[in-house]
Amino acid sequence: MTIKNVCLCLLLAAGISSCGTGKKLEAANAQIANLQAANGELTTKNKDLENKLAEIQARDEKIAAELKRYVAECQESKEKLMAVQAMLKDEYGKLQALKDKISEALVDLDDKGVNVYYKDGFVYVSMEDNLLYKTGSSALSPKAKEALSPLANVLNSYPDLKIIVMGNTDDQMFKSKTTDNWSLSTERANGVIRALRDDYKINPARMTAAGKGKYNPIADNSTKEGKAKNRRTEIILNPDLEKIWESVQP
């Protein structure tokens, strides 16, 4: 073989070797690129998962804080409720004592149309009109003092009580040029309030007058006895619940 042929053979072998190495390099570079791309995707997914985990943790912390606040508010509400219940129980006891005291003061009038009772958080003192007024008039009769004087003595010992005086009539038509049943019931209530203010020095700011005419019956108006029961004045004693109301305010 000539030197020329030997050289050609060597060059050909080198070319073949170089060609194989280049393909391997290209394959390796392609694999690296794929791995880098996959790594990038994994990095992105990992970041997304970290962000979601942070959101979940933040949400859990918020829920935990809200739950803690809710538990505290529930406890506060429970304590307020217990306090209100205790105050209401105390007020109920005071009203029962007041009812008993008024009943004792008016015991001599039990058979004269006076009734003292507790209803819906109020103490009622009901007096039939023949004890307080002249027939068909809002003017107080001389014997009204029998009922109002001992009652006023009790009321003056309870200065925080609010007093509503409510007049009521039967359904017998009563009408004059200036008044009817409704007006008569209101004027009778006004007459009692004026007497309590002027004769027994009860603070007028404590008192309210009202009249319901024939629209608040407690008995059958078709009978004489029923009409007599319906012609009445109710003195309604209302405890001062402002302290209880203030205790439930935020």
TrEMBL record:
<keyword id="KW-0472">Membrane</keyword>
<dbReference type="InterPro" id="IPR036737">
    <property type="entry name" value="OmpA-like_sf"/>
</dbReference>
<feature type="signal peptide">
    <location>
        <begin position="1"/>
        <end position="19"/>
    </location>
</feature>
<feature type="domain" description="OmpA-like">
    <location>
        <begin position="120"/>
        <end position="241"/>
    </location>
</feature>
<dbReference type="InterPro" id="IPR050330">
    <property type="entry name" value="Bact_OuterMem_StrucFunc"/>
</dbReference>
<keyword id="KW-0175">Coiled coil</keyword>
<feature type="coiled-coil region">
    <location>
        <begin position="25"/>
        <end position="66"/>
    </location>
</feature>
<dbReference type="GO" id="GO:0016020">
    <property type="term" value="C:membrane"/>
</dbReference>
<dbReference type="Pfam" id="PF00691">
    <property type="entry name" value="OmpA"/>
</dbReference>
<protein>
    <submittedName>
        <fullName>OmpA family protein</fullName>
    </submittedName>
</protein>
<dbReference type="InterPro" id="IPR006665">
    <property type="entry name" value="OmpA-like"/>
</dbReference>
<keyword id="KW-0732">Signal</keyword>
